Amino acid sequence: MKNYFLVIALMWMSFEFYGQQEAIYNEQNGFIAKGYDVVSYFEKKPEKGIFNFKVNYKGAHLMFSSQVHLELFNSDPEKYFPQYGGWCAYAMAVSGQKVHVNPKTYEIRDAKLYLFYNRYFDNTYSKWLNENPEKLGLQADKYWDQIKNSL
């Protein structure tokens, strides 16, 4: 019985990994930032978007909490779109891997939105802050360029 669960777990992890490698944008729950309103991060109040206020930008799906936020995004999408396609900034910096995020763990740095993985005892935002965010950002930029250019 244990072997059965082990096989199922390994299959699930391989599907999860495969899905992450193929997708350019991190669309957990079908939307960037798990459906959180990317404009709201810049107001320091991340909130979930509403299905009535959604947009497709460069193939990525986003939701917003209001028509005002949707219009703000449409007026300057690059300003609000999260770095690295919404994948974990720290994981992108250290290994170039696309790792899912906790949408409540974020940073606005140099007017850019960075999202991070934060689950159980692994808060990558803390690691990001402790290991020189400027240097990590440059490393992540290089990996992200490689990912985008490989498609």
Short description:
The protein has 151 residues and is of the alpha+beta class.
**Low-confidence segments, ≥5 residues, pLDDT <50?**
3-21
In round numbers, the mean pLDDT is: 89
What is the CA-atom radius of gyration, in angstroms?
Answer: 16 Å
Largest sheet: 2 strands, antiparallel
Order of helices and strands: HHEEHHHEEEEHH
How far is the first residue's CA from the last residue's CA?
A: 41 Å
Oligomer: single chain
Number of helical regions: 7
Strand order of the largest sheet: 1-2
Quantity of strands, as a count? 6
Class per helix and strand makeup: alpha+beta
Count the domains: 1
Beta-strand content:
15-25%
Shape: globular
Give the helix level as a range of percent. 40-55%
Annotation keywords:
two-stranded antiparallel ribbon; globular; 151 residues; alpha+beta; two-stranded antiparallel sheet; 6 strands; disordered N terminus
Can you tell me about this structure?
With 151 residues, the chain is of the alpha+beta class. The chain has one domain. It is built from seven helices and six strands.
